[in-house]
Amino acid sequence: MRTSSDTAPRTWFITGASRGLGRAFAEAALARGDRVAAASRTIAREVLDERHGDRLLALPLDVTDRAAVIAAVATAVEHFGRLDIVVNNAGTMSMGMVEEFTEAQARAQFEVNLFGALWVAQAALPHLRVQRSGHIVQISSIAALGGFPSTGMYSASKFALEGMSEALAMEAATFDVRVSIVQPGGYWTDLYSSMTTTAPMREYAPLRAELERQWAQGSVDSEPRLAAEALLRLVDSDDPPPRLLLGSMVYDLAFDISRRRMDTWAGWERVSRAAEHAVAAPAEAR
Question: Is 251 known to be catalytic?
């Protein structure tokens, strides 16, 4: 665990840093004396406190543009001399029933949430490999715990992010580079106010009414600074976990979903095991 005696500042590259969780992460890193390359589509230097001086590098960036991502990471390394922590935070949310999504809407969800994170990881890894150090943090979501009505495409993009990240973690470990997946619950950000929605089909009106009834019961989200405090503990750890849940609701839901899946698998164990019986390769395949 990092202590107060570890005074050397570390360099962060954070996407989606102009607002919400990304901004909270950037402010927390800067407050402890670290250096931050804050990347975002809409970022302007004044969104973060000017007192940070040269420790803050504001970078306009669309993470869906692979060439721009590679250039932005290179600029950050040139400016600060190294990278230590890469936080793939940029993300968007599209809500609607799976049947309602247009091709453009479905692809747009993956362009940011999956491919944006992929391009950042690919851009950062050459630098981290040479250093033989570094930590990539993938900001996922509660939606990656399971699919839920109206969040299917968002969940799909986060499932894909996590599958890619698990493989990345094993590959990057060869070079002493760590990868962690963070699954946050609800925080007061503009994720919901900035999300896109599908054109509703009348066939789903009853389901939408039921969802609205559930949502009307109200939810209490948390301050982004709490997520930032958890992130600092994660990157300070000598043995960071490959996955970190943020929030009691997410923690409980993760265990509930896992138990239900295990119960289902156990109930169908005989069928599962009967579907496998190793035999020699057929002659025509040899």
Answer: no
Supply the DSSP symbol for 137. Answer: E
Torsion of the alpha carbons at 171, 175, 178 and 181, rounded to the nearest 10? -20
**Is 140 tagged catalytic?**
yes
Residue 212 in tokens: 């609205």
Question: pLDDT (tens digit, 9 = 90+) per residue, 141-168?
Answer: 999 999 999 999 999 999 999 999 999 9
Classify burial at 59, counting beta carbons within 10 Å of its beta carbon; exposed 0-12, middle 13-18, buried 19 or more.
Answer: buried
The residue assigned the tokens 């106010």 is 193
Q: Which helix (H) or strand (E) holds 215?
A: helix 205-216
Query: What pLDDT band is residue 244 in, cutting at 50, 70 and 90?
Result: very high
Note the pTM of the prediction, 2 decimals: 0.91
DSSP-based three-state secondary structure for 97: coil
Q: Structural domains in the chain? A: 11-271 (3.40.50.720)
Sign, CA dihedral 47-52-53-57, equals negative
Identify the active-site residue in 18, 40, 154, 155. 154
Name the catalytic one among 158, 165, 180, 187.
Answer: 158
Query: How do residues 176-199 score in pLDDT, each as one tens digit?
Result: 999 999 999 876 666 666 789 999
- Is residue 43 within 8 Å of 17, Cβ to Cβ? yes
pLDDT value of residue 217 = 72
- Catalytic annotation, pick one of 94, 140, 157, 180: 140
